């Protein structure tokens, strides 16, 4: 589609190859990384929804939220990967990197269509590909949604640019609309695309007409629908904070702070972190952030309106695409994050590229060679620094302990980092260090229920059930509707040989979260201890109804059905458990074979 002659084609091929090669080697270390305990468990390692490629499961993926977000395209991508890679992280990292490389190609393609300048398009794509701010979106498996939504988002813009050549509804228009839908199915931030289409109209001097307005209507309708869906998901998951919903001044201050923060990190990408401590709205004054932001915007509009549309286009491309995460609706316990800038950075990268190429084109008498040499040295040095920072940043995402230790290096008093690193130490069996981190997290934030619950898990692992129950009690005191704390307390009672108390706590956990499969599964075990097989079977049936892809639950139901002398059904459950990768005890199979013959053999 970019063909303008053989010579131009060759230049484009070489240009694209250089972009992909530079980007690939800069991000290569991420292919050696593992899963982390920051959402990778929720999205992949403990997510039974990615383990069963069936019509019913796909229907459930499209009809439910995942970690408070509606992103069925992302979950489907994990589903297909699981069939090939199971839980080997390399495959998931490779997919993210391939998507990022594809996005770099699309960035070049898009800006070439917009500017017809290979040099500007190349530099914009290289900056996009190399920048260390994008490591989080690529190296973090759970942030698949960023690289996936961006892929469809950029492709939709490219199709729209081709559509503008004829302004005739046809394959490019409908392709753009379909790609936009896929982008929305990947991440809600795609809702900004219709506004970007208007910005492209402005940049390409499209005439104002009825067609120019009407062709955006389907895009805006889709944005509105998916925006509502995203809001419902965030509210239902409890992610929306309440303290600043009514304070408009605070919203302006926080949004301005975010804009200045991102501009600073784009220009000086140091002290990056996967988690920036939450700066409360009281700590962010209206000045100087709002003042600086307004000055920058006014300068961009005034200068650009008189000379060129490039500054307005780049500035507003940044602002429009960053708007959903500027905390006008306060979500989560952070107000800024590296991943939020993935697409938004394009506006700034474009302005930098145009500015640099403009400086290179300036004619200087008798110093042209020296000027060219200096610009080449500056460009090579800048790209080399970015590539090095990206390489090192990829290594930070190698595992959970390295990741959270990096946060603590920059923010030594961040309780969340201690809490999450404690989980990683516990998973490694390093109980002493895990308890130390939990103690520090509690010291920094004594009103957070999570480190008490997590420390209780370590005490339970050590066999210290009394101390474990004490920590669970404190966690529940701080957070009365804490389903996991009730569940863990039930496990502690169960390990102590108190099935009645275990059943009571499992029941409380289920009352809070009716989809807590592990509670049904383990309450069934407690019922078996009390020889109440009917209730055990009922719990396991409910667990399978919620997640029909959990091999452990099928195995447990096989045991219960064996005890109830339903041998044929027990065999069916064993076969299903094995299909789902669950290891089956050979003793159970032997007993079941004998029982199937004489029908009366006890366990």
Key phrases:
603 residues; mainly alpha; Serine Threonine Protein Phosphatase 5, Tetratricopeptide repeat; 29 helices; elongated
Topology at a glance:
Layout: H1 6-27, H2 40-45, H3 55-62, H4 72-85, H5 89-115, H6 118-130, H7 135-139, H8 144-164, H9 171-184, H10 193-203, H11 210-214, H12 217-236, H13 248-267, H14 289-307, H15 310-322, H16 345-361, H17 368-396, H18 400-410, H19 415-428, H20 431-444, H21 449-461, H22 465-478, H23 483-495, H24 499-512, H25 517-529, H26 533-546, H27 551-563, H28 567-579, H29 586-598
Helix pairs in contact: 1-5, 1-6, 1-17, 4-5, 5-6, 5-8, 6-16, 8-9, 8-10, 9-12, 10-15, 13-14, 14-15, 15-16, 18-19, 19-20, 19-21, 20-21, 21-22, 21-23, 22-23, 23-24, 24-25, 25-26, 26-27, 27-28, 28-29
Give the number of DSSP strands: 0
Biggest β-sheet strands, sense, barrel = none
Distance between the termini: 70 Å
Q: Percentage of helical residues?
A: over 70%
Shape: elongated
Number of distinct helices? 29
Range of strand content: under 5%
Q: On the 0-100 scale, what is the average pLDDT?
A: 88
Q: Please mark out the parts with pLDDT under 50 across 5 or more consecutive residues, or reply none.
A: none
Secondary-structure element string: HHHHHHHHHHHHHHHHHHHHHHHHHHHHH
Structural class computed from helices and strand pairing: mainly alpha
Indicate how many domains the architecture comprises.
2
Rg, Å, rounded: 28 Å
Structure overview:
With 603 residues, the chain is mainly α. The protein has 2 domains: 6-396, no CATH class; 527-603, Alpha Horseshoe (Serine Threonine Protein Phosphatase 5, Tetratricopeptide repeat). Helices cover 70% and strands 0% of the residues. The chain has helices spanning 6-27, 40-45, 55-62, 72-85, 89-115, 118-130, 135-139, 144-164, 171-184, 193-203, 210-214, 217-236, 248-267, 289-307, 310-322, 345-361, 368-396, 400-410, 415-428, 431-444, 449-461, 465-478, 483-495, 499-512, 517-529, 533-546, 551-563, 567-579, 586-598. Helix 4 (72-85) packs across helix 5 (89-115), helix 25 (517-529) packs antiparallel against helix 26 and helix 26 (533-546) packs antiparallel against helix 27 (551-563). The protein is elongated. The N and C termini lie far apart (70 Å).
């Amino acid at each position: 589609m970019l063909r303008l002659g053989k010579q131009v084609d060759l230049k484009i091929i070489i240009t694209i190859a250089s972009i992909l090669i530079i980007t690939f080697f800069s991000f290569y270390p991420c292919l050696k990384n593992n899963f982390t305990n920051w959402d990778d468990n929720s999205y992949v390692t403990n997510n039974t929804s990615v383990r069963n490629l069936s019509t019913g499961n796909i229907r459930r993926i499209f009809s439910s939220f995942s970690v408070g977000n509606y992103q069925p395209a992302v979950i489907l991508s994990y589903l297909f990967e699981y069939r090939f890679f199971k839980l080997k992280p390399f495959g998931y990292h490779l997919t993210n990197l391939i998507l990022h490389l594809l996005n770099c190609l699309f960035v070049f393609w898009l800006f070439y269509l917009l500017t017809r300048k290979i040099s500007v398009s190349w530099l914009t794509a290289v900056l996009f590909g190399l920048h260390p701010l994008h490591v989080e979106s690529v190296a973090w498996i759970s942030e698949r949604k960023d690289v996936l939504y961006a892929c469809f988002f950029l492709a939709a813009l490219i199709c729209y640019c081709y559509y503008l050549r004829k302004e005739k509804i046809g394959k490019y228009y409908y392709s753009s609309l379909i790609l936009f839908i896929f982008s929305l199915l990947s991440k809600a931030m795609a809702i900004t695309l219709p506004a970007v289409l208007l910005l492209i109209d402005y940049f390409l001097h499209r005439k104002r007409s009825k067609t120019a307005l009407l062709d955006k209507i389907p895009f805006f309708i889709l944005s509105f629908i998916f925006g509502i869906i995203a809001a419902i998901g965030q509210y239902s998951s409890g992610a929306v904070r309440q303290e600043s919903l009514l304070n408009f001044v605070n919203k302006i201050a926080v949004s301005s702070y975010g804009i200045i923060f991102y501009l600073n990190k784009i220009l000086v990408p140091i002290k990056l972190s996967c988690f920036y401590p939450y700066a409360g709205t009281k700590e962010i004054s209206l000045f100087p952030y709002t003042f600086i932001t307004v000055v920058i915007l006014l300068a961009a509009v005034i200068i650009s309106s008189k000379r060129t549309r490039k500054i307005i286009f780049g500035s507003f491309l940044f602002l429009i695409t960053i708007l959903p995460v500027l905390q006008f609706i306060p979500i989560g316990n952070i107000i800024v994050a590296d991943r939020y800038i993935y697409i938004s950075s394009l506006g700034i990268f474009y302005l930098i590229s145009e500015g640099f190429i403009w400086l290179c084109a300036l004619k200087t008498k008798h110093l042209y060679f020296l000027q060219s040499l200096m610009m080449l040295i500056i460009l090579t040095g800048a790209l080399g620094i970015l590539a090095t920072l990206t390489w090192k940043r990829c290594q930070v995402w190698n595992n959970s302990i390295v990741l959270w230790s990096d946060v603590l290096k920059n923010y030594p008093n961040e309780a969340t980092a201690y809490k999450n690193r404690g989980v990683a130490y516990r998973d490694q069996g390093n109980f002493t260090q895990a308890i130390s981190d939990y103690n520090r997290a509690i010291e920094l934030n004594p009103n957070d229920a999570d480190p008490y619950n997590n420390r209780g898990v370590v005490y339970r692992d050590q066999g210290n059930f009394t101390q474990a129950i004490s920590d669970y009690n404190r966690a529940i005191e701080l957070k009365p509707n804490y389903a996991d704390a009730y569940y863990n307390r039930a496990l502690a009672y169960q390990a102590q040989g108190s099935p009645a108390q275990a059943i009571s706590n499992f029941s409380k956990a289920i009352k809070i979260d009716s989809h807590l499969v592990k509670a049904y599964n383990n309450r069934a075990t407690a019922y078996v201890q009390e020889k109440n097989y009917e209730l055990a079977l009922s719990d396991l049936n409910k667990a399978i109804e919620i997640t029909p892809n959990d091999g452990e639950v099928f195995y447990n139901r096989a045991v219960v059905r064996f005890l109830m002398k339903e041998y044929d059904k027990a065999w069916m459950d064993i076969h299903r458990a094995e299909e789902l990768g669950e290891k089956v005890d050979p003793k159970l199979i032997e007993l079941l074979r004998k029982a199937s013959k004489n029908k009366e053999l006890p366990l």
